[in-house]
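Translate sequence into structure tokens.
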Amino acid sequence: MSNALNVAKLLEHIDELSNTIKIQNRVLLDLKEQRRHTRRKLNNFRDPMARLPLEIQSQIFLDVEGNACDLPQSSEAPMNFLRICQLWRAIALATPQLWSSLRIQWLPRKASYIKFCDLWMERSGPLPFSLYLKGELQLTTQMQDLMTRHRDRLQNLTLELVGELTEENALTRHILVKGPFLSLQTLEIRTEDEMYFRTVNEWVDLLAAAPALTKCTLDNMYVEWEDWGRNGFPEPLPARPLLHTSLRELRLGDVNYYAAWVDHGSSAAMLLYLTLPALQTLHFTHFDITHKEFRSFMARSWTSPPLRSLSMVVERETSVSGMATWLRSMCSLTNLSLFMMSSYNRSSSSERILELLEALDGILPALHTLTISMNSGEEFDYRRLARFLHTRRTGQQTPFATFRLYITPRSGGRFTDLKLNDDVLAPFRLLAEDGLDVHIGLEGQNLLV
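Result follows.
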């Protein structure tokens, strides 16, 4: 009996000790937390960063992050700021500018990643948002819903898409189906393979869904005509093309691909369905409409021509004299860039360039910068070119300030050390001494220097 009582008392005492230990542990944890809090206060007094106003702290974070135009990936800043300390985390979360852009390299499939993207965009508060997406063409339902929730703030959208376009994943149904995007100002869509709008309406609806759009780039995209008309153009044309009053820059294709002799452009036939009175910069790589149709586009768009910059690929079939018929109406054009596609006959290529230059005589009075890219200049008549530039500088028209003749290798070939005789270059050196900014040679190699 006595042993049983002793055992019971010992067990009771053990329980009391255990409870006391738990209480002491809680006290110890509380003391440690008080110590951390006190140290944090001390650091706030000692740390110059902590004494700065929140606005200055936020600006420092923005400067550390880099150029505001750069789109951070989810694994970069500002996520890294959250891992440093509580103070840095608080500053990062209180700086919505840090969260106003996001780059997603591959379109997410997992719901957890979509939730992460949603949280990121919410942290940017009411600020305009920039979004870069790269991946498969068909956007998931969750990704579409994410864009819809934030569409009122989406200002810049870049899509780099891979995959084939089919009737089931038509472009506008999976990109701007949840529109309109009333705040969208910049839209850039690039594709690895040729991509076709199923109908003209899809192309028109793409721009109509973004009435505030000021800059649009479509690379490697075409319209798949259901009814082919004369010369491969659709008939009939719409009675009333889309009037877009905000678009100032339109780029259809990327001329840099042509510099590498890769067929990678976008159809100029899209212009048949547009009226763009605010357009200042136009770039296209496939002049697959007639000169008359292009003049019609100009006439309805530019009653008071605002166009300042034109860049285009001059294909083998493009008539130089036809180009002159609409170039002469571009009285405000200051920058003209032409990439001359190689003719099957090298001497013919040279003649087409010189014919074009002579066609410019007496027109384009405001032209400031002329850039011509051509394929291999071995048989080019440089003396004739120099005479044209001299005449332009001494004539009644505003002289060029800048002239560039970029010479690129033929398809499949390369040269890194292009050379021309001094007697060929001498007239151009005189023009340079007279004040003309002139470049002859490879894009990275000016033979006059």
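Note: The two ends are 112 Å apart (CA to CA).
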